[in-house]
Every structure is written in structure tokens, then in C-alpha cells.
Design brief:
The chain is mostly helical. 76% of the residues lie in helices and 0% in strands. It has one domain: Four Helix Bundle (Hemerythrin (Met), subunit A) (Up-down Bundle), CATH 1.20.120. Helix 2 runs antiparallel to helix 3 (71-93) and helix 2 (41-66) packs parallel to helix 4 (98-137). It is elongated and about 60 Å long. The termini are far apart. Bound molecules: fe (ii) ion (2 copies).
Length: 138
């Protein structure tokens, strides 16, 4: 995988529509970080941060509503990556552009791992709860 060609693929689909839609947005904004235009990097990073705040908040809320057991661990991953994005933002603003390319390269790996593990578990957990609700209603 090279970050230049990284984008949405079915490999990332978790078959939970609202989550997949949000993940497609994340992928678009994250892939845009690798554009070679330092003048707009902060703008592109800010768009990704704004998206991520809402994206993670939505998942944190789903976890609270469904009493998802590893909620603390999942939320911690969200908080950590947001902290990294914000730290990179301040370093780039302070005149250290190398971290911009590094973030653009590393984030797709982070996201794929996060989708495969935490988000996948949450999507399955919510699907199982929905099936149970249907079964007990019939
Ligand atoms: Fe997610
Ligand atoms: Fe997540």
C-alpha cells in the first residue's frame, strides 16, 4: 500500500451503513493529507480533525448506548490519534514540516488497523444486539 494510491475499498467495509459512510469521509480527508502542497496542509488537517471529532463522538455514543464492553479501550484509541493530529498540527505550525508527511503516511495504517479491530468489533456488537432485539420482539 502506498499512501499516494490509498483510498476507500470494500476491504474497509463493515456492513454497518452509518459507520461505513463516516469511514468513507475519513478516508477521503485522510488521503488528501498526502497532497504535496504545504501551503494548504493545515487546512486539510483541520478538516480531518473536525471530521474525526464528530466521527469518534458518534462511535463513543454508540458504545455508551449499547454498553460495549471494550468501550474504554476503543475511546482511548480515538483520543490518542486526535492528540497526535493536534500535536503534528502545532509542530508544523512551528516550522517542522517533516511531521506532515509522516502523519500522511502513518494515518492510513492506523485507520486500517482501527477499522479491523475496534470498529469491526463495535459494528458486529451492534448488529448482534439489533438481531437480538428483533428476535425478542417476535
Ligand atoms: Fe470509526
Ligand atoms: Fe473507532
Amino acid at each position: 500500500m502506498t499512501h499516494e494510491s490509498w483510498g476507500w475499498s470494500d476491504r474497509l467495509a463493515l456492513r454497518y451503513e452509518p459507520m461505513d459512510e463516516t469511514h468513507k469521509e475519513f478516508v477521503t480527508l485522510c488521503a488528501a493529507l498526502s497532497e504535496d502542497n504545504p501551503a494548504t496542509f493545515i487546512e486539510r488537517l483541520d478538516a480531518l480533525i473536525a471530521h474525526s471529532v464528530e466521527h469518534f463522538e458518534q462511535e463513543n455514543q454508540w458504545m455508551a448506548e449499547t454498553a460495549f464492553p471494550p468501550a474504554g479501550c476503543h475511546k482511548q484509541e480515538h483520543d490518542s490519534v486526535l492528540e497526535i493530529m493536534r500535536e503534528v498540527r502545532s509542530h508544523v505550525l512551528a516550522g517542522d514540516p517533516d511531521l506532515a508527511a509522516r502523519l500522511a503516511e502513518e494515518l492510513p495504517h492506523w485507520f486500517e488497523h482501527h477499522v479491523d479491530t475496534m470498529d469491526n468489533m463495535l459494528a458486529r456488537f451492534m448488529a448482534a444486539q439489533a438481531d437480538q432485539a428483533v428476535a425478542s420482539a417476535t
